[in-house]
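Regression test attached.
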Amino acid sequence: MSKRFKWILALSLMVVLSVGSVALGASKEVILATTTSTRDTGLLDVLIPIFEEKTGYNVKMIAVGTGAALALGEKGEADVLLCHAPASEMELVESGDVINRQLVMHNDFVIVGPSEDPAGVKGFKSATEALKKIADAEAVFVSRADDSGTHKKEKEVWNKLPFQPSGNAWYLEAGTGMANTLNIANEKLAYCLTDRGTYLSLKDRLDLAILVEGDAILLNIYHVMQVNPDRHKVVNGPGGQAFVEFMVSDEVQAIISEFGVDKYGSPLFFPDAGKSMEELGG
Amino acid sequence: MDLIAEGIAGALRLLIAGDREVLRIALLTLRVSGTATIISAVIGVPLGTAISLWSFRGRRRLAGFVNTGMGLPPVVVGLWVSIFLWRTGPLGFLRLMYTPTAMVIAQTIIALPIVTGFTMAGVGQLDPGIRLQMLSLGASSWQLLSILIREAKLSVLAAIMAGFGRVVAEVGASMMVGGNLLGQTRVLTTATSMEVSKGNFGFAIALSIILVGITYIINVILTRVQQQ
């Protein structure tokens, strides 16, 4: 071997090791799999630094749809989940994949659309009736179509109708996050089912108005839960537990009740720690 | 038009004010893509030269592999690297998922075939006479390799530039294995993609301008070296 080759070998080894060492230091980390709405509204950007400072954990927030977040939890690829699809979450509670599931907060879903409202659904009390009217009018509707909590809710409403929207030219399946889906609906002058928080945080850039709200089926409930550390050796049990306790603590609940008031005039989420689903009417 | 003006003004503001977050994102982009490019060059340039010069068993198959690898879609690389690095995966014990190192690994897999392939093509175009001349002058294999790489400097540097260009522009793999974590694995492409999805078009335009600026500066430097 020539000297030069040895030198190159040593150099490349050094590069690999120096990059690698960065990762090995991170042992006190908590992986939080959550929905895009909690990131896109900016709520977690406020809460996570407080948690990190209090506990010394380093949080890795992976913002995906609720379906993907639950799948990551089931695989043991996350330590704690913050989701909004109660029925799907209960499946994981029953299978023992997640434990310590607690109610954190709620807001609601709304149906938004162009202010001209071509399908004429404004003011409808029933979300199901509104979707039926949109389908009858063949007005363009953009669906998340990404197995997120919002998408699950949208499917729940469609399932009350005798037909499925999928496959129709007016029904667009975006397969992307909430903010992106709202942008698409905005460009296409379409209707869309969205959580109120994300809609409010983007409202200034959208020509979409809230047309249907207040139906009990549109309640949007967020739970935090730990991935069961007994299921996977790699899961950080104490870290997950600390995050669950943090989310339902008085301090965080107070922050949630104030979050967004300065910017949007009303809170984006309503704190619910300690309440039961029945009290919320869900 | 307002949006474009707002974006450009925003980019200048961010640059002049030296916004810490943007600076950190830009530096991480350089560090990750730069490291991946260096590793790819260190392995890919000699490998490409060797494949193009020496005949050995399986050489054609290897060349075929390299050529196929040049078109590897970043999302495919992202998925497969994720499968291996997930903490319940075969290399999970390394705890590399959602770290810059994971991004370097994915980007190296993307850049290596490009650097190797372009080097292979470049060295293959050299006058075969040089090789014979060197051998007749008693050059060792390593000496021959380094002389030929120097002779093919133009194409070798083009190969490295192409590799860097591909990984610095790549978003799918970085998003998947990095997770776009603020302050840890957020690079210019994943940040741009996220800001667009959040509707912050002005900020996204600013980031995109910075990204193109970085790519331009790196390429100017490499072109200088190339033309020396």
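Expected vs. actual: identical. The interface with chain B takes residues 1-2, 4-5, 8, 11-12, 15-16, 19-20, 22-24, 26-27, 31, 40, 45, 60-63, 75-77, 176-177, 179-180, 182-183, 202, 205-206, 232, 234 of chain A (CB under 8 Å).
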